[in-house]
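Form 7-S
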Amino acid sequence: MNTLPAPPLRPSEYEREAFRRILQWRNPERSALKRAAGWVQDRMGEVTDLVRKIPGVDWTIENVVAGLLQVTNEITQDTVWADAIHEEYRQAGRPVRHPAHIRRLDLEDVDRVMAGLGHKYRALAAVEGAATGFAGASGIVPDLIALVALNLRAAGEHAAYCGFDVSEPAERLFALRILDHVSRSDSKAADVAMTPVLSIATRVAKSQSKNAMEQAGMSRAIENLVRKLGLHLSEAKLAQAVPVTGAVIGSAFNTYYTDRVCRAAYHLYRERFLFEKYGPEVLAGLT
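Output:
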């Protein structure tokens, strides 16, 4: 009978190199692409300032937030099938039947099974953004709800492939913080600080999740974060208020945003995988 090997005391060479690449991602150089993206965001901000003066825009933002609250409660229960992911591991020759079994594998095994996940969501985001962009301002509410649902699904699948259960409130909060972080942050310092803070917060939340008061606090934290996420994304997407042009902006923005979410989820969940497996002391020796 096949059995899962006990995790080694030290990371494999593949895991060492993966961790070095994660650190490189968290400390990026300011590339020409990032500078161009910053210019586009500035121009979109100018359009946003004008569109915010249109009557009904604040109502649109509030409806986005209301829709996101609903989809946040539903997405982790209905659309991430851990059993199907575990079956993929078993077909690859790894006897996985529980999320904890995944974290005993080598990260190379995880990457092999998870390959191509980000490409799927980038393609879906491009199609969804163009379709709703043609509707102009009236398309912002369904577009953003669909965009967040898609990216929560993307983050949730990355989590499940790395052995984390997104049905838990703490993991749902972690996924939402990735989405919110990407919606508002392009600074190197924020990228560097994000992972250890979220990892610690998640562990604490899990340890306290049985307490009713703590559960209520977690629900409030999720609601507050959803509201911030809705506001940030609404401001970015208000440039879609101009029909046709909005379709171009919608597709480009959705693809760009989803690409960043998938990259962040890919690196952050793999980093958490390594932290859970080896502990921060061992990984600190690799830096």
